[in-house]
Amino acid sequence: MSAITTTNPATGEPIKTYPLMFEQEATAMLEAAHAAFLEWRVLSHADRAPGMPAYDDEIVGPVAAVIRAKDDEDAIRIANDSRYGLGGGIFCKDEDRALKLARDHFDTGMIRINSFGAADPNMPFGGVNVSGYGREHGGFGMKEFANVKGIFLP
To answer: Aldehyde dehydrogenase domain: from which residue to which, for each copy (predicted)?
Structure first.
């Protein structure tokens, strides 16, 4: 494997580096990734029960989990029965009721009401619990680039 020569910006001296993997390793990795491709799925309540990975773990992929709640209390119980908390959604005919549930009872960093979509750069993005803390995007994200000074006077 041949070295790639770069320059140390501090000293101007040449630095030799080597690729992190051989071509055949890269090919094998891509083939494995292709073999692990998941087709889209819609999971119903029958597919999700406590103790099952689709219920207990965060699913990243082309998967939609649809669970019908009996009432508001059941919806809150289902939504908050997770160690994760990146985002969620509420579909409801009464938007005021959905807004109150989202604001006062759901323990997630982001909630969409009667919609689904990707992150919006104007809205804060981030989770709670095991899904992280802090926010990106929007006004909250801008504060990540600001310095705050704390002064204590006893």
So the answer is: 49-149
